[in-house]
């Protein structure tokens, strides 16, 4: 084959390869809007900055978001309703399982790509969400890197806590509910050397707090979200104030943003609770 003919064939092959690659590149969403704090956390971990059109309406608020400082680099939607989301002309919208059904219906009707993250009770659920979003964004390798880093921290914490006697705890707060089986609090206990007495008593999900049973549950520590001031708030609730654990000062408070996190940032809550319950393992 003549050199000119060979060059022509190679040029055509290269053009075909580029034609195949360009649609894949174009398929990556370029205007992603996150509608909830949990999806903010996932999106910021995986997306290129240029892919993010806007984050949730409370993404910039450090009282709720563990990534508020990073989130302030991007616009925030005015509210969590469909109109506020669509104002940013998204080609992909990330929503949470607790998003109002009418909002989801309006977003679907608008014809934009919608991904709903609705499983977050365990870290395995978080890994599944990272992989799903990584595929949507064309960032599969980045998702696997975040998962590997988190798994490494989870394994290191498990090794440090190996053989500890679980401390008997209950979730406590101003709302008249406690967290039983199938909650993120149960997941937290499972990784921090704690035994959730509400689950032991048969409670599932977020159930009404049974004040008359707290004294017989043999609670060794109360776990809540917030700061040191949260202990004083719990002291104003009679059924917590009466507990021997409260009187002895065995109250653990974890920053709210990581306590309630439904992303890989939950590992920070694992580590914070483990340090508070088993300080001897961290000396």
Overview of this protein structure:
With 283 residues, the chain is α/β, with parallel strands linked by helices. The protein has two domains: 32-154, 3-Layer(aba) Sandwich (Rossmann fold), CATH 3.40.50; 163-278, Nitrogenase molybdenum iron protein domain (Rossmann fold, 3-Layer(aba) Sandwich). The protein is built from 15 helices and ten strands. The strands form three sheets. The chain has a four-stranded parallel β-sheet with strand order 2-1-3-4, sandwiched between helices. Helix 7 (140-161) packs parallel to helix 15. It is globular. Residues 21-26 have low confidence and may be disordered.
Total DSSP helices? 15
Could you tell me the number of beta strands?
10
- Give a short account of the largest sheet: 4 strands, parallel
CATH topology of the largest domain: Rossmann fold
Q: Tell me, what is the CATH class of the largest domain?
A: Alpha Beta
Give the low-pLDDT segments. 21-26
**N-to-C CA distance:** 74 Å
| Mean pLDDT reading | 90
What portion of residues is helical?
40-55%
**Overall form:** globular
Q: What is the number of domains?
A: 2
